[in-house]
Structures are given as structure tokens and as C-alpha cells.
Design brief:
The complex is a heterodimer of chains A (461) and B (46). In chain A, 42% of the residues lie in helices and 16% in strands. Chain A is α/β, with parallel strands linked by helices and 461 residues long. Classes of the chains: A alpha/beta (461), B little secondary structure (46).
């Protein structure tokens, strides 16, 4: 399977099953499309295909391009077959271990963000803070169920985790005290709205947190519209100086400013560039997940506008990179040489299997997005998993279990997408959320285009 | 090659033998909490 597209002046051919990415000239682009329309390379059709293209391009060049295509096919980097289905089915049968927990350290929040999937921090339940005892039991559960995995990840999430800061610090200390005993390495991360961020928090985070996600949506009016305090005042002016100071204190690394865009700011590239112009170098801005019918929900008719925004952002980033003003946009990051193995790419995000969320009172859910939906309650940190059948359902969920993914070029990049989104929109964790898929595909195309531009500029130097 | 420039040398099919150690980062623990992005994670078993 191949995927072809043109973006920002580049003609790109992605060989889906090998992951090879080829930048080609127009002749080769048309030739590969011709071969693909015929069902793939076939020596019996070669002469007719060369003749067809020779009506448009010089025959000598068509033959030359055809020879190059044949070389790539022989090298298994073009028109490569998908041979992974039996492999991934066997892989998924292996016993799984838990390696990452999302600790809902506080089901409470000092903001009242309009799009909050956590219902203003309370996850449609009552306000609650996780006690040290529950958090400790969660870390013990993680260590006990992590098998041979050495790297364990714990994200302090909310609500707003800084509303339960002492417990965060105590749990980090407890985790560190267990590392040598069990030959484990904890990677702690934190997500915060910044309201309570101060020098003491910063100093602790810089020492202990492998990554910190700072929530900000972009321009002041966009941010304040969706992320007000409970009494309605905007939070932008309070948090921006704190976030800038924080980012600088970490050397502009190991953090992301993370925003959400909605139907109200379809021109979201302005928000990304606004964050870059403020001085942030690690940026993640992604589409809101909302119930259909919400006034801020992304609609199908918004897609052409959003595609144009991604194109604009990608072109701007490619240009800024050449001018030494580069920044990272999380959803355009792609690792062409050191990226994940095919097992990782095909087995999904790990929700419900290697990644679990823990509520303030210790209940386990497949991920943060399912918290509060009793149908997905798995057990708790003291008794462990008691509803293995729900975990098994998540374990079976991979790209070959999703009909739409089988024919999608993006399956090795998104890994079948978010199970919670799929469930929210189709009622099935093995479904697909179409609007999310379209946006994901566009982001991948842009990310690859940026790599093409970088490679061209490297060749030119 | 005159007509084709390949951007990467690593092939997915070559990761089948050594892959699957599971030490790499969980995708939702990085900077996305609402959209699954796996292709940008790094391998920790190079």
C-alpha cells in the first residue's frame, strides 16, 4: 500500500508497510500512481505503463524513473506488502504488564474550562483529593504489575494537581525510595493549569519531573474564553509570565505548552504561532473532543479550514527552521530513523492494558478519559484488576481490529487512534472517530512535508 | 537516483525481530491527552 500527496511544492510517496518516504519528481509521482491504479507492480503491464506516461514525459526519462521504481520495489521500500497481521495477533496474546499510571491526584480545579472532559475537574462525581495512602498503594500496584519493565511512568493529573501538591511531593519521594529496591526507574510527569505555579513548584519539577505539560490555549481572547476562573475572569494574564519563567528555567526543554482548539478558533495556527512568538519552544495544540452538538465542537464542515491551517502552520515552521526561529509542534514531530518498532505502532496507545488511570479513591480505569464511566471500572489499587474481561477487550483492540484502519495509510503513526474518542463517537472502543482521523492524517502529511523540506535544505548546504 | 530521494533508511519490517520490548514512553503521557500519536515516540532499544 502506498499513499501519495503533494504539499508545499513537494511530491511525496509514502510506502505504508515499510514506512519508507520518498520525495519524487512529477514524472515519478504520476508513474507510481499509474502502477498503483493497476494494482501494484506487474512486469506484464510495464510496457503499457511506460507508453502511457511517454505521452506526457520524454520516454527516456520515463524508462529511467521506472528503473528506479523497480529498484525500490526489490529493496522492499515501495509497494511493500503488509505482513504484520499474524505477528501482531501473536504479540497481543503475550501477557501484558502495567507500565504507566495517570494519577488523578485532585478531582478539583481552580479553573472552570468550558470544554473540560473532567466536568470542571470533578469527573461528574464529587470533589476529592487523593490521599498519600491511596497514591502509595497505586505506586505499589504499578511496581508489582510491571514485570521486567524498568521504566515506569506516573503522570500527576487532575483536575489540577497543584491543589494537592504536598501529596505529589510525598509520592515522588516514595517512588524514588522504591527504585533501587525493585530495579525500576520512575519517570514522573505533571499537567498543570499554572494558577498555583510558583518558584518552589518550579524547583521541585525541574529536579523530579521528566516532563511538564502547561495548559494554555494561545491568544488571550481564545484562552480566556474557554479557560476562565470559576467566577468568569480570564486566566491568561496570570499564567503566561509563570509559564515563560518555567520554560526558561528548564532550558526550554522537557515541557510542553498544551492547548486545545475548538470551533471558536478554527484559525488555531495563529494560536500556535502566538505561543511561539511569546517565546515557547515546545508546543502542542490539539482539537477539542466534545459531544456532538456542543457549540464549540469541531464539525465536519470545519475540516477544509483546519486542513488549510495545518498547511499554513507547517509551511511557516519549515521557513522558521531555516531562519533559526524553530519550535517544536508536538503533532508534527515524527522520528523517521529512531521511531517506534512495528509492535508499538500496531498495538495501540496501551490504554486498559499497560496504561491505567487511578481515581482519588484508588479506582482503576482504562485511561483518564474513561474515569467516571462505571462501565469501564476495572478494579482498584488495593485489590487489583477485578474485571479482566474489560482489559481483554482493550487488549484485542489494535489496528487490524478496526475496519477503517486496515485501508488507512496513517495506521502506523496513530496506532488506531484514541479508544476513548472511538467510544464517545461510535459506542465501540474499536470504532474510529472520523473527524479525528481526518485531522490526524493531515498532521502526518504535514509532518512528513517538513522532513522533506529539512532534507532538501540539508542537501543544499 | 535522479528521480527519487528517500528520506529514511530504517524499515519497519526490520523492527519485527528486535521490537516489542515495551520500554518506550506511553503515548498519552507526553503531550497529548486526547489524541493518540505514536509515530513520534522514540525507540529506547536501539
Amino acid at each position: 500500500m502506498i499513499h501519495q500527496y503533494k504539499n508545499n511544492g513537494y511530491a511525496i510517496v509514502l510506502d505504508v508497510n515499510s514506512g519508507a518516504i520518498h520525495v519524487v519528481d512529477d514524472l515519478t509521482y504520476d508513474l507510481i500512481a499509474c502502477i498503483d491504479r493497476a494494482g501494484g507492480p506487474d512486469p506484464a503491464k510495464k510496457e503499457a505503463q511506460i507508453a502511457e506516461l511517454s505521452a506526457v514525459y520524454p520516454r527516456e526519462q520515463v524508462e529511467e524513473a521506472y528503473a528506479e521504481v523497480e529498484t525500490l520495489v526489490a529493496d522492499e521500500s515501495l509497494f511493500t506488502r503488509d505482513s504484520y497481521e499474524p505477528y501482531i495477533t501473536d504479540f497481543k496474546k503475550r501477557p501484558t504488564v502495567v507500565k504507566a499510571l495517570c494519577l488523578h491526584i485532585a478531582h478539583d480545579c481552580n479553573l472552570a474550562c468550558r470544554y473540560c472532559f473532567a466536568g470542571e475537574g470533578e469527573y461528574h462525581g464529587s470533589r476529592a483529593l487523593m490521599s498519600f495512602e491511596v497514591g502509595k498503594a497505586a505506586l505499589d500496584f504499578l511496581i508489582a504489575h510491571s514485570g521486567q519493565r524498568r521504566n515506569l511512568e506516573v503522570d500527576f493529573f487532575g483536575g489540577e494537581p497543584l491543589m494537592n501538591w504536598q501529596v505529589v511531593k510525598d509520592l515522588v519521594a516514595y517512588g524514588r525510595s522504591q527504585e533501587k529496591l525493585h530495579d525500576k526507574s520512575f519517570r514522573f510527569t505533571l499537567t498543570t493549569n499554572g494558577v498555583l505555579l510558583d518558584d518552589e513548584v518550579t524547583e521541585f519539577c525541574n529536579r523530579e519531573m521528566a516532563n511538564v505539560v502547561l495548559s494554555i490555549d494561545g491568544r488571550r481572547e481564545v484562552h480566556d474564553r474557554m479557560r476562565p476562573f470559576r467566577k468568569g475572569a480570564g486566566s491568561y494574564d496570570l499564567i503566561v509570565p509563570k509559564f515563560l519563567k518555567f520554560a526558561e528555567s528548564r532550558g526550554q526543554e522537557r515541557y510542553y505548552v498544551r492547548g486545545t482548539f475548538t470551533h471558536h478558533n478554527l484559525d488555531f495556527s495563529e494560536d500556535v504561532l502566538h505561543l511561539a512568538d511569546l517565546g515557547f519552544r515546545q508546543i502542542s495544540v490539539e482539537p477539542v473532543v466534545a459531544e456532538e452538538g456542543a457549540d464549540y465542537a469541531i464539525r465536519r464542515e470545519d475540516l477544509p479550514r483546519l486542513f488549510a491551517e495545518y498547511d499554513r502552520l507547517a509551511a511557516e515552521m519549515a521557513e522558521r527552521k531555516q531562519n533559526g526561529r524553530e519550535f517544536q509542534f508536538f503533532h508534527f514531530m515524527i522520528d523517521l530513523e529512531g521511531g517506534p518498532c512495528v509492535a508499538k505502532r500496531l498495538s495501540g496507545c496501551g490504554s486498559g492494558t499497560e496504561y491505567l488511570a487511578v481515581t482519588p479513591w484508588g479506582d482503576l480505569y482504562p485511561c483518564h478519559q474513561f474515569v467516571g464511566n462505571e462501565k469501564f471500572l476495572l478494579g482498584n489499587v488495593r485489590e487489583g484488576i477485578v474485571r479482566q474481561e474489560v482489559c481483554d477487550e482493550f487488549k484485542r483492540c489494535n489496528v487490524y481490529a478496526k475496519e477503517n484502519c486496515r485501508t488507512c495509510f496513517a495506521r502506523f503513526y496513530c496506532s488506531g487512534g484514541c479508544a476513548a474518542n472511538a467510544y464517545n463517537f461510535t459506542g465501540d472502543i474499536c470504532g474510529t472517530y472520523d473527524i479525528g482521523c481526518e485531522l490526524q492524517k493531515k498532521r502526518i502529511e504535514c509532518a512528513i512535508m517538513i522532513k522533506a523540506a529539512e532534507s532538501e535544505s540539508a542537501v543544499g548546504q | 537516483m535522479k528521480h527519487i530521494r528517500t528520506l529514511n533508511t530504517k524499515k519497519l519490517q526490520n523492527t519485527v525481530k528486535k521490537g516489542g520490548c515495551g520500554e518506550c514512553q506511553t503515548s498519552c503521557q507526553s503531550a497529548c491527552k486526547t489524541s493518540c500519536t505514536v509515530g513520534n515516540q522514540s525507540c529506547e532499544n536501539k
